[in-house]
Every structure is written in C-alpha cells, then in structure tokens.
Design brief:
mainly beta, Immunoglobulin-like, four-stranded mixed β-sheet, four-stranded antiparallel β-sheet, 48% strand, globular, EC 3.5.2.17, purine metabolism
Length: 115
Amino acid sequence: MKPSALSTHVLDTANGIPAAGMALEFWRMEPVPVLLAQAVTNADGRTDAPLLSPEGFRPGRYELRFDVGGYFAARGEDAGYLGTVVINVGLREGSGHYHVPLLCSPWSYSTYRGS
C-alpha cells in the first residue's frame, strides 16, 4: 500500500508568479472540525513541509483554506472579489501522495489533484 500524505502550492496566475506569502490553514473535518496546521507559502508558493505527513495520515475529509484576498491586498491589488478560498477534499488510505495546487487571480481560482 502506498503511503499517503498531503502537500500544496499556490500560483498567482494574474501575475505569472508563485504566490509567496499567502497564509493558509489546514483542517480535519471529521468527526468535528480541528485545525491541524497554519502556514505561509514560501518564495516558491509552497509550504516548507507537507501539511499532512504519512505518519499523521488518517483517511477522511479535510479542508485547505487559502487567504487569497489577503494575499492580493498585500500586493496592493484589488482583492474585493475573492476572500478565503476553501478546498474540501476526501483522502483515502493507500492512495499515495495527495498534492492540492491552487491557481488563483483576484477574480478566479482553480484546483486539481496534482502529483
């Protein structure tokens, strides 16, 4: 069985750069919501360590909460449309590494399961 873990990174698609300095939270949602980690993305738009290691992995529903509005406001850009972007994911044991990228601009975002 493949060990499971979770990582993320954020790309600022409006400016064509990694979203350095974006605050985010990582929550386990079951059986009750619990904040597991808070982080700020590094110069490459990534967290310095995985948000969920293979040792701490438990199957279930999780949320990543990205402060997209705060990131664009800190850059002096219009942040009136998006605030916190929430991505809710279901993680299964033995499914390998989960990578959740966020591609964002002040007015839109997208995500996918990366590798």
